[in-house]
Amino acid sequence: MRDFAPRYLQGCDYGRWVWRTLPVVDERFELNEPDPRLKAAPADTPHSRAGPIKIVSQPFSAAAYGHRVHIGRIGVAGLLPLVLLACVSSDRPEPRRPAAARPNRRPPPRVPEPPPAETRQCLADLDTDRVEYRVLPRQDLGGGCVVVGAVQLLDIGVPVSGLTSMRCPLARNFSNWVRYGVAPAAKQMLGSELTRIESYGTFNCRPIAGSGRLSEHGRANAVDIAVFVLADGRRVSVLGGWNDGSNEERRFLRTVFKSACRRFTTALGPEYNAAHANHFHLDMGGRPLCR
Question: Alpha-carbon distance 244 to 228, whole Å?
Answer without folding.
Answer: 15
